[in-house]
């Protein structure tokens, strides 16, 4: 460690673009079905109960932290959990299926504001249980869905490749879309503020379906709502992360968003992304989740490519470009984590 390291956590330091003792790594969807210990618990308890029982949510959050030398934990929950707290009825099968998709102004107006400690108290209780149990001083990331990504599920009512009804909704009823996005932006701001108050040490918005939009619609709808959420979170003082899936065409639009870190998928090389984002942003990513199926030697080579692309300036958090696949061998994750640490340790 050098004396210039002024955050004890490599993850938090990298978020703030400070020098680090090693490149920190965590894995999107690191708590989940690729882990036998998760499947074992999940065979007895349904997914929603796992998220609603703080003791179980804490256990599942900690499972990957015990198995691997990960530099950060992420709360075990789902992007639709706070939406359920707003009274939207849905089930996980395994993706979210909304009983009555939201398409009318009356439905939008009827959505109540989220009061996190009243509507989803178990989330904050989970955070309070997790924090003292985290190994190696690893910080805890709280998260929510990006307002546009939530709109995709609410308007379509189910997972989809193209989210056609959500995209046509933006064009057919733009004012209604903005109203819905504003509501979701304010709800996610309240939700993430409550997570920070309960002990979350960084806050991340998952914009999983950003790549469906052309830049003008991304700016008008998705990004405007994200600005609204993020502006309300600045005073928490914790690093803010915006993950933009399939966002290679959108990087210029996000460059002036007031967040600390931009998460990117594997389709855009980090070198090019950093050029567009400029020196004021850290980057998180971006190994293809499929690379975990390579041979040990090839996996190292693919990880090295990501490190080389990220360059030598501070401000890189190693991650996958999207969530880990359920079919992944956990041993490959262990090898990846160890390699990134060995290769970057100073
Ligand atoms: O380790 C972690 O990252 C924390 C857990 C987490 C889950 N969902 C648990 C989960 C996180 C961060 C999420 C976010 C989430 N949920 C996103 C954004 C990230 C992304 O992948 O783009 C999205 C789009 C959702 C919506 C969602 N929830 C889908 C599409 C699905 C089904 C597909 C899938 O990946 O399982 C879910 C269900 C879900 N969320 C499961 C888990 C572990 C599977 C439930 C089960 O065990 O059966």
Structure, described:
The protein is an alpha/beta fold. Helix content is 47%, strand content 12%. The chain is built from 16 helices and 9 strands. The strands form 2 sheets. Strands 1-4-5-6-7-8-9 form a 7-stranded parallel beta sheet. The chain has a two-stranded antiparallel ribbon with strand order 2-3. The longest helix has 25 residues. The termini are close together. The N terminus is likely disordered. Coproporphyrinogen III binds next to loops.
Structure keywords:
single chain, 346 residues, alpha/beta, seven-stranded parallel beta sheet, two-stranded antiparallel ribbon, 16 helices, 9 strands, globular, disordered N terminus, binds coproporphyrinogen III
List the helices and strands and how they pair.
Blueprint lengths: L9 H6 L20 H7 L4 H6 L1 H14 L5 E2 L6 H5 L4 E3 L3 E3 L6 H6 L5 H4 L1 H10 L9 E6 L1 H10 L7 H9 L1 H25 L3 E6 L7 H19 L6 E5 L6 H4 L6 E4 L5 H8 L4 E6 L8 H15 L5 E5 L9 H15 L2
Parallel strand pairs: 1-4, 4-5, 5-6, 6-7, 7-8, 8-9
Antiparallel strand pairs: 2-3
Bound molecules: coproporphyrinogen III (CP3).
The site of coproporphyrinogen III has 21 residues, from loops.
